[in-house]
Amino acid sequence: MTRRLLPLLLIGLLVLYSGCMGGEDAGKGTPSVSVAPPEVSPEANGSSPVVTEIPKSPNKPLLREQLDPYPDLKTALDPVCAEPPVPEMECPEGMAFIDQCGGFCIDKYEAHDAGGGVAGSAPGTRPWVDINWHDAKAACEAVGKRLCKDFEWMAACNLDGDKYFLTEEEENETYGCHTKGSIGSDETGFRANCRSAEGVFDMIGNVFEWTDAQVPSDTWGGSSEPVGTALGEDGSKYGGDWVYHDSSYMKEGNVFLRGGDWYNYAGGSPGFGCFYLGLYGVPSDTYPSFGFRCCVDA
To answer: What's the predicted TM-score (pTM) here?
Structure first.
């Protein structure tokens, strides 16, 4: 269940319940509908609980074809697919099913070099880095997959189903996503708690991930800023995630990089989460912190 549909589902259930109770025979043979309160977790010091809120995008839901390419930067910062969730379908081994955006499968692990220019996906391997965007696309295609669309990557990114960024305490203790290191990437799946509700690992931290989206125009350039600020929203909803689109380096044709890597050079803020977006990657770039993962239609 995605973050955008949960609020709508809850509202629907409340309306249904109200309608059932208002009739002459209200309560006769009609099961009661209860809505669970927001998930809360006590703070470490035992004070008042902290409510885990489900982010609701300010952007209008759009169909897949309307998100490829994105019409504007704001849409790219928090895209929402208009397609309703689809029933679960079978995915190839090593992939997880995502019911959004028409349904698709995504690699559970960041891609590794399986030899011969072919991308593999398995736990306990080193992410394939120092690979440019063109070669990453070819490596996915060589195994019958494709580089993930950016909106697909975003639809798949979460922690435990309802978290999209982490506090410093959660990074270091609860989830342990690899965002505070200085010695390179971990083996895939090493951070066992850094996984989505669907079983996808390391979408936050470890290595940046190329996606199949490019900047359509130099006019997207500006000054790098928090995602919440760029959207005109409460910044706390997007944690410490920033969008890097400084006009000094962001040019038409640059590629979207998602998820953050193993070294948070800013020392905690801005941080890395599902909404982090780097628009500084040139398609021919190769860096020891740039990797990828593959997707396929379900």
So the answer is: 0.78
Distance CA(171)–CA(276), nearest Å, equals 15
Residue type, 217: S
Nearest to 172 by CA among 200, 151, 191, 144: 191
The pLDDT, as a whole number, for residue 56 is 74
- The residue ranges of DSSP E strands in the chain, in sequence order, are 40-41, 50-51, 95-98, 104-107, 112-113, 119-120, 146-147, 208-214, 225-226, 242-244, 255-258, 277-281, 290-292, 294-297
- 166-174 own/partner pairs: CB under 8 Å, 24+ apart: 166/204, 166/239, 166/271, 166/273, 167/239, 168/268, 168/271, 169/44, 171/205, 171/271
E strands, 114-170, are: 119-120, 146-147
Name the nearest CA neighbour of 276 among 99, 150, 114, 138. Answer: 150
Gap between the Cα atoms of 246 and 86, Å rounded = 38
Domains of the chain from N-terminus onward = 5-51 (no CATH), 64-297 (3.90.1580)
User: What is the mean predicted confidence (pLDDT) over 83-93?
Assistant: 96
Residue 147 has pLDDT above 90, yes or no: yes
